Amino acid sequence: MATAMASCGNDKVQSMTSFTPGAFGWCPDITDPRDFPFTQGILTKQASTHTPPSNALPNHETDPPLPAIQILDEETLQLFQRSDGPAHSTAAVMSLSLVDWISRRWRGIPMNRSSKFLYQMTIRTQGGGGVMGVGLRATLKTLVRFGAPPEPMWPSHSPSPEVPTDPMLFAFQSDFADLKFYRIDDRCRPATETLFAIKQWLASGTPCLFGFSVPDCITSQSWIPHEHDRSGILGGTAAIAMGYDDNFVVNAPQPDLRGALRVRCGWGEQWGDHGYGWLPYRYVLERWASDFWGVLYPQWTSTLE
């Protein structure tokens, strides 16, 4: 059983290496009935063309039990986060990093695309300008609508104008036209069902996007403390869930927090376990983590393993 010590109001944390995250910019998505929900038919269609798809939502009481531990291939994930890029672009960084993982996993082809372009175009489609946070839904919609050019064509460190204008930058929309994204969490359902749906998606073999509120007591350790009643919030950040462990325990002054998601944040490899860490299930159950989105390319993923 994996065990970690974490506490916001504990001297033990104060002695740990202090850490200030430098990447935020995630804004929670409001509920939209037009979102495509994650249903059993999504996995059924991917796994077999001979089985009729089901529109049933994940249900922990009727669906087959899930494995207690599921960790996906972390070596395939290449995080395109530049230290000199937009600090509020985590939604774009994580979205493109997940698409790259899917492409590497199923086609063996990398897709190193410009997160700065995607971030700037997402802001533009929302009628904003300058530096601001964006949601994952808006980011994924922008990716399908406009695509994203290769990183060298619109590098994150370049002194580029605020709005991309070169027509060549928009010539890659077809690479993302068939991308499908599904809302995994549902605020109208119990949080326990949301957690089960997240684990079910991860158990199918594909990571998912999400965002969470970052407590001001976070350290460089590879687990994220959960004591929102005793700490402030630094901001929201997007992340990628790469798996889960029902037996992972974070010890704190309150009763043990059992179970955690394996996550990749955009804070560089100096945080956690080379950029990876553990987010207690409590974040999901208390809705401090939300906007879980699954992304698929149906023409690439004929089967899910």
From TrEMBL:
GO terms for biological process: proteolysis. SUPFAM superfamilies: Cysteine proteinases. Keywords: Hydrolase, Protease. Gene3D superfamilies: Cysteine proteinases (3.90.70.10). The keyword Flavoprotein does not apply. InterPro entries: Papain-like_cys_pep_sf. It comes from the Bacteria. GO terms for molecular function: peptidase activity. This is Cysteine protease. It comes from Rhodopirellula maiorica SM1.
